[in-house]
Amino acid sequence: AYFQIQGMPYGNCLLVSDGPINNSTGIPFFYVTPKDKTVADLLKNPVASLTLPEMDGNFCRKNVIDPEDPRCTRLTLTGQMVTVPPEEVEFAKQAMFSRHPVIRKWPRNYEWFYLKMNIEHIWLQSWYGEVSTITVEE
């Protein structure tokens, strides 16, 4: 049950978009509900990490290697999850709905809203754990 892990870090899968296909920003946006325990936790403690596997990288695709294989690159972003301010909501909506059309079919009564990650640290990991730090500006 949830109460047994309350306060403990744990992972979850959320749909993410950094902008419409023709206007990527590098800023991860999320369309979430406070009814999700992950979101409820993030509203109390906004520190989070997001790991993105190399789904389309040359090495793993050419060699037909599982994206979770340690030879495949992954990018980990860490930072603060914040509610998208009103002036950015329309962009966040375009970002999420353009990349994940299934959202249109989600139940309307779940108090959906937008979060984004204010990225503080970026790590690029490849080849059995080699880690490179990337500046947020890059």
UniProtKB/TrEMBL annotation:
Q: Which family does it belong to?
A: Belongs to the CREG family.
Domain of life per record: Eukaryota
Keywords from UniProt, A to Z, are: Glycoprotein, Secreted, Signal
Q: InterPro entries, per this entry? A: CREG_beta-barrel, Split_barrel_FMN-bd
Principal localization reads secreted
Task: State the protein's name.
Answer: CREG2 protein
A GO cellular component entry from the record = cytoplasm
Parts forming coiled coils: none
